[in-house]
Design a protein that fits this description.
membrane, transmembrane, transmembrane helix, mainly alpha, 5 helices, 145 residues
């Protein structure tokens, strides 16, 4: 029977007599540190964290796009993104993304400007107009008790 010695830094250490001679390098001796397992564990943790960060960055994309728009549009997109996050329904995320891409026209600024101008015009007319005539008092004889 052939004696099999370990390869690597533990040259000369006798392995099990029934072990084959061509063992892969990630198989360790009993009591030794398994560096391959540690490396795979670190890689797995980094991969899970990386995929989570990528998912959350992608999920926040509609909110980032709508941030430069109007406040109402941003709030609607943010609510749709939250609903999509908690319900796992991608239709809400797609609706938020489409809403973030479409610029909504600003109706409130011109309307508020018109309202302010009409208010100023009404105050100006009220100051320059003569006071309305007072109604004639109704004689007491016409009122029946």
């Amino acid at each position: 029977m052939e004696t099999i010695l370990a390869s690597g830094p533990d040259h000369g250490v006798l392995l099990h007599p029934e072990a084959v001679a061509h063992l892969p390098p990630f198989i360790t001796l009993p009591g030794q540190t398994d560096w391959f397992l540690i490396g795979v564990g670190i890689f797995l943790i980094a991969a899970v964290v990386g995929v989570g960060v990528f998912y959350l960055k992608l999920h926040a994309l509609p909110e980032q796009m709508a941030h430069s728009g109007q406040k109402v549009q941003f709030e609607i997109v943010a609510v749709l993104a939250l609903i999509a996050l908690f319900t796992h329904n991608h239709a809400f995320w797609i609706a938020g993304l489409l809403l973030a891409m479409i610029p909504i026209p600003d109706f409130t600024t011109p309307l508020s400007s018109m309202a302010e101008s009409l208010g100023l015009m009404a105050r100006r007319k009220a100051r320059s107009a003569p006071p309305p005539p007072e109604p004639d008092p109704v004689p007491a004889s016409t009122i029946e008790s």
